[in-house]
Specification:
The chain has two domains: 158 residues, Rossmann fold (3-Layer(aba) Sandwich), CATH 3.40.50.150; 48 residues. Helices cover 43% and strands 21% of the residues. The protein has a seven-stranded mixed β-sheet, with helices on both faces. Strand 4, helix 4 and strand 5 form a beta-alpha-beta unit. Helix 1 crosses helix 2 and helix 7 packs antiparallel against helix 8. The radius of gyration is 20 Å and the shape is elongated. The relative contact order is 0.10. The structure holds S-adenosylmethionine. The site of S-adenosylmethionine has 17 residues, from strand 2, strand 4 and helix 4.
Length: 234
């Protein structure tokens, strides 16, 4: 029977496209192992560690590699980067988890911030602003940021390496460091404006003066986002 070629969903496809050719990759929280298997299958990389803290997800990754007849993957059952040493890889992907989990994983692997030594591809599902703030306060530098649309959501993907980041504006921390030329940035901002507008309406209706004052602060933020969004569609 002919083997069905692995296809990636858009979120994983963008990550795959951003992995440098020939990288020695660690995919942390690999789950089904789609990303390393796809990259190895196409000869884009020749070595990958597929790591997961869960036994079941790691077994899924083993099965994906077997089904796709791909070799060159090492499977590691470990928490974050704890089972991986600095000399084994030059590229680390941590995707599909909350921003706080990504922070915990990096906190336990100081070696990842060695200046310019590693390419880190981070794709938080939540708390992107907290992650950006933590990265810049903790010795990481943004080389780029991108957006991807997948199943009705727009996700940021951060490319960082160790180094000193010039101070970010509040808008960059909240809504992306280097996204102005991204074709999805206008939509990304529009979704945020819609979310904030609802929140502002609710808070303005509240009897609590503190909530109403917060609503006015949010309205200022919303106006700044609207200005930025207009620049994107020019
Ligand atoms: C939603 S899946 C994401 C899979 C894939 N990375 C993606 O982006 O589609 C999250 C995976 O991360 C794993 N995970 C969560 N916390 C982890 C940690 N501290 N270390 C390693 N893996 C972790 C989970 O077991 C799960 O398999």
């Amino acid at each position: 029977m002919e083997r069905k070629e692995l296809q990636l969903q858009p979120r994983l496809q963008l990550l795959a496209d951003l992995v440098p050719q020939g990288a020695r990759l660690a995919d942390i929280g690999t789950d089904h192992g789609y990303l390393p298997v796809w990259l190895l299958q196409r000869g884009r990389i020749s070595f990958a560690i597929a790591a997961d803290v869960g036994y079941e997800p790691l077994q899924h990754a083993v099965r994906t590699a077997q089904e796709q007849e791909v070799s060159g993957v090492e499977f590691r059952l470990c928490d974050g980067l704890r089972g991986i040493t600095a000399d084994e890889v030059d590229t680390v992907v941590i995707a599909g988890m909350g921003g706080e989990t990504i922070i915990h994983i990096l906190e336990a692997a100081e070696w990842t911030k060695m200046p310019g030594a590693y390419t880190l591809l981070l794709q938080p599902m939540t708390k992107a602003a907290e992650l950006r703030r933590w990265l810049t306060d903790n010795g990481y530098y943004f080389t780029a940021e991108r957006l991807v649309f997948d199943k009705d959501f727009i996700y940021p993907v951060m490319l960082v390496t160790g180094g000193e980041q010039p101070e970010l504006t509040e808008l960059q921390v909240r809504y992306g460091v280097d996204l102005d030329r991204d074709p999805l940035y206008g939509d990304y901002l529009q979704r945020e404006i819609a979310r904030l507008t609802k929140q502002i309406e609710g808070q303005r209706r509240a009897g609590d003066p503190e909530k109403r004052a917060q609503a006015e602060e949010l309205a200022k933020l919303c106006a700044a986002l609207e200005e930025k969004r207009k620049e994107c569609v020019k």
